[in-house]
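Recap from last week: sequence in, structure out.
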Amino acid sequence: MEVEDNIEMEATGPIENAWAMKIPKFTPEDNPHGLIEESKFATLFPKYREQYLKECWPLVQKVLKEHHIIADLDLIEGSLTVKTTRKTWDPYIIIKARDFMKLLSRSVPFEQAVRVLEDEIGSDIIKINSFVKKKETFLKRRQRLIGPNGVTLKSIELLTECYVLVQGNTVSAVGPYKGLVQVRRIVEDTMKNIHPMYNIKSLMIKRELMKDPRLKNESWERFLPQFKSKNVPRKKPKNKIKKKPYTPFPPPQPESKIDKELATGEYFLKDEQKRAKRRHEKEEKQVEAKKAREEERKKGFIPPKEKVIIQNVNDEPSIDINKFKAKMKKVSKENKSYNKDKHK
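Predicted structure tokens:
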């Protein structure tokens, strides 16, 4: 009795690593009588997926037939339907088949979507359009999740062992349940303006730390990268739109062509008079345009105004007479000496 109790305690006791648990496989012997009620699910698909679904539909039917599930493709309504039969023995396979149809409608290829029918593999479709209000910000953050040439998305797939596809306003993921939790965290943090490299680095560090048995019971916080939010100054718009003062009355209705003609009296003129008036207005405009052209041509022949320098007669230059006399004496001496040398 004591041995049996110990075995029961080991089976129902706390588990250190739930992800490492092996779930027993569900076989037809566990449910020999099948299902009593019929379950049915329908999923809509976009028009651009019609051609691909028509090509791969025989393969879809073949895979689901192994689990005794009937699949219908309605091209008129644009829907995918799966339903159970009396031979279906697995009660959860209809949920898996429903997820399979959802993935196919979200542009996931057949080779990856069919994996969801396995026991250890699940799927997750994450909506990302509700995290951001502005479309420009949404597109930037979605592109950040993909990365240059899809490098960021590929690294997420390698670390989580999941297939990830970014399509429109959703992100589809197929893989083990532990990886799906990690993918959802990375996607949600990216749309909340936390760069995916922080989560990718932390996953890489955790993978290395798991190999060390000494750090098994210690906190790993000191090894993981810490994200710090920064208030980056945003660019202010150059042209600020000034709000007009609020008035409860609507703006006045603009005048129609008939109203303008009535105001000027043109409405009561005859057709000949109207034509004559238009001709006269046209001739006046032509005369004005001709004058403007002539004035523009004449501008090239007008000489520029010369600057006139006016000197004041009373303002005589101040000369030092003594310096001038000394200078003249020096020049005369130099001339005398030059003349003597020349005559010699």
